[in-house]
Amino acid sequence: MGFLSKLTQACTMGLPFLPEDTCAKAPQVAGIKVQLETFELWQQFDQLGTEMIVTKAGRRMFPTFQVHITGMDPAAEYVLLMDFIPVDDKRYRYAFHSSSWLVAGRGDAAVPGRVHFHPDSPARGAQWMKQTVSFDRLKLTNNLLDDNGHIILNSMHRYQPRLHVVLVDQRKDSQLTAHRNFCTFSFTETRFTAVTAYQNHRITQLKIASNPFAKGFRTTDSDTW
Question: Are β-strands 100-106 and 90-95 bridged in parallel, bridged antiparallel, or unpaired?
């Protein structure tokens, strides 16, 4: 836990997440590749304008952020974590007459930046690569006073999820090379607008149709959705 607590502190300070490709990466991370799972589903949502519910208690994402990772050193240990950055500094509103999102003004003050550690972290590269990595325990909230570790977001703002793969380096001077020991991945298809209730009815329909946990809401008559 010493490494994780040190990494958490580094994340809070904005390290080691420097701009990508500012220098050569460590060989254990230089060849890592990440593929977004259920890409077609994410693409369907993206074409409609993905919305994710945020609640005071915290709500899981759907689609779930899942990836397949290759190129790790099988024997090395890695920590996987996610954060969410604003796409821009604007606040949005949904115009029902035109079924589109419009800029409503400047964005609200930045909320506390948090990261979500995958619960299997740290683990060897061989373990991460052998199966799909799912961030299904991650929850989104709009509660600024949340003490459950959920990701805090502003409603009606747009966000880009990011995945960070961090090499575990136990050397005492590891902070000197921290910028070489991580790589960051993001997929534009996973961008979304945080909402407290779905605005676009087509998003509601697609979530009900594709989310296995929403089967109780399904009906054979799509007009009743």
Answer: antiparallel
Task: Give 157-216 as a DSSP string.
Answer: -EEEEEEEEEE---STTGGGGGGGSEEEEE-GGG-EEEESS---HHHHHHHHHH-GGGGG
Per-residue tokens: 42: 């994410």
- Give CA–CA dist 76/126, Å, rounded: 8
> Scanning the structure block, which residue is given the tokens 């009906």?
219
The domain limits of the chain are 2-215
Q: What is the pTM of this model?
A: 0.84
* Pairing, β 192-195 against β 51-53: parallel
Q: What is the mean pLDDT of residues 183-209?
A: 96
Q: Are the beta carbons of 152 and 146 closer than 8 angstroms? A: yes
88-124 in b/e form (b: 16+ CB < 10 A) is eebbbebeeeeeebeeeeebeeebeebbbbbeebbbb
Alpha carbon distance 140, 155 (integer Å): 10
Tell the residue number behind the tokens 């007459």, with chain if given.
97
Q: Which amino acid is at 145?
A: L
CATH H-level, domain 2-215: superfamily: Transcription factor, T-box (2.60.40.820)
Residue 3 has pLDDT above 90, yes or no: no
Q: What percent of the chain has pLDDT over 70?
A: 84
